[in-house]
Amino acid sequence: MATGAKSLADSLEILTRTASETLAGLMDSPVECAIVLKRVKNIPATAGTSPEAALLARLEQEAGEGPLTEALAGNGTVAMNHVTSDFRWARYRPHLQNAGFDSVLGLRLRLDDGAEAALAFFAPGAQAFPLHVIAAARNFADLAARGLMLVLELQTTSTRASDLQSALESRTSIDIACGVIMAQNRCSYDDAIAIIAKASSHRNLKLRKVAEGILEKLPGGAPRTHFEH
Asked: What CA–CA distances, in Å, run from 88 to 32, 56, 63, 67, 108?
């Protein structure tokens, strides 16, 4: 994750703050930033440098139009330098006006297959994003895309490791419970697993929960596995 980030949401917020600070040094007005991240089988994730910027990103998802949407669908860069006189985004434009923004810039972050993201910058004055600012924003977007891909890769690796540990713990609990049943009933492993499966079906519980229930009734309680250390 990005420095100081504990989650993907934290990383997205840090990215928007860094983006805003990068462009603020080139502009004569304050600038807010928002991001949307879309991944297969996940709801879109949004973040912003302020509650207003984050809200604009969420409202755009509801409206289905705006700088983030157009940047993802088009050539990757979209600018509106006079919101009050521009006729694009009829459903979304009033949200920009209500928030007090008259200039907006959208940029796509080029990610690997299965994920796409875009940044939007918002400024209160008209003509806030001249060509040199747009060029700087594009350069930042290239760097941000690389960083975000690393964040997503780390998150995937962490999730897989957690899933593997859970599977190992579950399998170990079931195997130990089978050993207990085999000792008590002098039956085979297949018979023991069948007993657990039957209890699982009758109680509408997962196999692991049934196994853990059996182990908790042992005189010394459920034995710990090395996966729990």
From this structure: 21, 16, 13, 10, 19
Question: Residue 227: its pLDDT value, please?
Answer: 45
Q: Which amino acid is at 227?
A: F
Closest CA to 228 of 181, 185, 187, 173: 173
* Partners of 71 in the β-ladder: none
pTM above 0.85, yes or no: no
Q: What DSSP character marks residue 104?
A: E
Tokens found for residue 197:
């499966």
Spatial distance between the Cα atoms of 162 and 140, rounded to a whole number of angstroms = 33
How far apart CA 136 and CA 127 sit, in angstroms, is: 16
Instruction: Record the tokens describing residue 164, joined without a space.
Output: 């593997």
Q: Per residue in 140-196, pLDDT tens?
A: 998 888 888 887 777 666 555 555 556 556 677 788 888 888 888 889 888 888 888
Query: Which tokens in the block code for residue 220?
Result: 């010394």
pLDDT digits (tens, 9 = 90+) for 205-222: 888 888 888 888 776 665
Q: Token pair of 95, please?
A: 């949200």
- CB neighbours (10 Å) of residue 166? 12
Residue type, 11: S
